[in-house]
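FIELD: query
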Amino acid sequence: MKIDLHMHSTASDGTDSPEELLKNIIESGIKVFALTDHDTITGALTLSRIIQLQDSIKFIKGIEFSCITANHHKCHILGLNYDESNSDFQEALKTGDKLRHEKFYRRIELLRDKFSITFTDDEINELLRIPSVGKPHIARLIIKKGLADTITEAIERYIDQCRTPNSRLNAELAVNAINSSGGIAVWAHPLGGEGESELPEDKFRAALSELISYGVKGLECYYSKYNLDTCGHLAEAAAQNKLYISGGSDYHGRNKNIPIGKLNAENIYIDSQRLNILEGVKIN
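FIELD: result
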């Protein structure tokens, strides 16, 4: 059974709408998937309403919180199979949304002050209509102004030069919110995501211990960037700590060169039996 428990839609920084994403999932042969947009459940709720018509596919509501631990380790925490009506979960959503918008406005100010890049009120409002606005959305407007040719160029030349204060959610708060809502908290791409340098083993172990103390229940061991040896190493760490083993591509559509359903760098098929996270979210 082909699965992918980490992907993004236009509700955050993907290029597929939830409806387009579902179409691509069906065409790819994936049978179980989760939509894990950054700090928003808008896309997941949209899919929840339409997925009932697809009895051959199982959908898990997901989210990816951008977090930081008490020891200043930046991390991403996936929440799978939550109850969005839970008050703790709702509070985490509101806090994450507030922090993200504060960062957005600060970036806009810095782009103006540092590079004299300004946006009209209509452009700002267009960006604010995106549930989880981020770098790629600002980058597209920079491209429209003729100041860059690609999203990567716009981000590296301008946006990444505008350093903003930390806007990440407290990791313990995020994990507690997911657990309180009946979901499973999973540390996403624990050795570093796409485009990030690999986390050294000692820092990985320290962060893992800290996150487990918060109540993290799973580890994303199978990931599009990691080779099979790395995936196996992470699976061993998960087993040693009695954590669920999860896997996902981190698909973003055209924003990242990652195929849907890719769970390792070699793009070798990973049987769903290796991912015992499915037991936790009651997918058989």
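FIELD: remark
The first helix runs from residue 18 to 28.
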